[in-house]
């Protein structure tokens, strides 16, 4: 098992803090959990706790960006994308301010805290705002690269991070290309498109399918917006069937983004793995992934189903 | 104003509070997850409300005329569950299902899951607004039902709390009584260092609430404050209850780290024996 993406965030943020003097970090009383405490310890003069006040977190971030700083603002995804949605829209994205929102504890794998803390709508909310870039890293290395990209890119970025440790998928020489899908396996019968913690499960599903004589392409889409249309259209042309996988509602997230590209360009049968228009609940992460059908087995079953729908 | 509690009543209530604390430590340990510190600090407040004041009936948890309770600091769910179980809303054994998959005892209170929960909470800063709405609904129905809520002191940093504060005085919601569990700590440290909401009583007074300051572990004082609140007309009452986070478990008292951490099983045995000793005294 590798690091949780939030752990990698804390580490790289500290490193970037040494490199870029303009980086300032804000948190809303969750710095130990979001790992901004690592930065706070190294650069106490450039860390500001706003207390339990997420709307103010975004507003102050906007002001700091307008004043020439590069603010990284962190809290749980529920309270970033959810509580402060309108501040993000009107104070950050509308003026296209250089605020980086690194939101942790996204998705069902928040676990025991339960539905009130399980953001499964944040990708949907964030990608609907003009000027926003939305990134969902799959492992620690991709997180380091994505956060570095965000620090060097000019404009608002939402980065979705998780609570749980995830397997390492990428080595230190991995290059992160903004807006470009990463092909992890090639295949001809179906393409599995995954994001975030579901990328590992997608890889595993492809192996299971291989044992069943099915050849699956696996694409990691880390940048949900702007999305890699070319890779999706090519996958449709080459494999004729698509399965999307995300630890998020099937409404408005990766599945919707991929469907939008497909219907406008090259419609092919598609299945979506995600949370099916329901709230989560308390439980250990592995039990939740099972109950809400977000496992490699579920992906493999969806792949078989979508292949059977091919004309 | 109502009578004082008798010495016997006070000691009976203290027994309930100790039993509730015992359940909190047990259930958080069993779950290996949850928030013991802020649950323990609010135990005396919930005990007094549920066992000496509120009109609630475990056999008829949805009675329209009942008093309502909103745990605005929803992460302290263990104290609410332990209190409801102590009161007979559900068997105490069920407390050990806290935070498990398929349990009615969600990590944060969910009114659709468990009878006795009057409002779903967990996202801080929202409970006072809901409590104000419940108080307004009671008034519209000419009901004598009263509404109680408990907020965290860190929670006061949420702007929405102050929107609700204005609303409650503007609409003269004198059937609403709120508590601040003034334990001085939030997750990242002391409230005065993280983002100070101080001075707390003065702020509520400036928002035109009736403010009472008490020792939040003095059952008689809690009871008296509730009785006084019932006599205040034309405005809501805020009871600022000075408390100790982790109260009752020496190792946890005033330690921010115990906000959201479960004891090991070994620690649990020690903590439970401490609580037993306290009760014996
Ligand atoms: C809107 C929101 N932001 C952040 C959190 C995460 N959180 C849970 S408890 C807590 C600290 C609460 O401190 P306080 O209100 O003082 O509670 P207590 O000390 O009584 O436990 C935080 C920040 C949350 N639940 N809701
Ligand atoms: Mg507190």
TrEMBL record, chain A:
<comment type="similarity">
    <text>Belongs to the transketolase family.</text>
</comment>
<dbReference type="Pfam" id="PF02779">
    <property type="entry name" value="Transket_pyr"/>
</dbReference>
<keyword id="KW-0808">Transferase</keyword>
<protein>
    <submittedName>
        <fullName>Transketolase central region</fullName>
    </submittedName>
</protein>
<dbReference type="InterPro" id="IPR029061">
    <property type="entry name" value="THDP-binding"/>
</dbReference>
<dbReference type="GO" id="GO:0016740">
    <property type="term" value="F:transferase activity"/>
</dbReference>
<dbReference type="Pfam" id="PF02780">
    <property type="entry name" value="Transketolase_C"/>
</dbReference>
<dbReference type="InterPro" id="IPR020826">
    <property type="entry name" value="Transketolase_BS"/>
</dbReference>
<keyword id="KW-0786">Thiamine pyrophosphate</keyword>
<feature type="domain" description="Transketolase-like pyrimidine-binding">
    <location>
        <begin position="3"/>
        <end position="168"/>
    </location>
</feature>
<dbReference type="InterPro" id="IPR033248">
    <property type="entry name" value="Transketolase_C"/>
</dbReference>
<dbReference type="InterPro" id="IPR009014">
    <property type="entry name" value="Transketo_C/PFOR_II"/>
</dbReference>
<dbReference type="InterPro" id="IPR005475">
    <property type="entry name" value="Transketolase-like_Pyr-bd"/>
</dbReference>
<dbReference type="InterPro" id="IPR051157">
    <property type="entry name" value="PDH/Transketolase"/>
</dbReference>
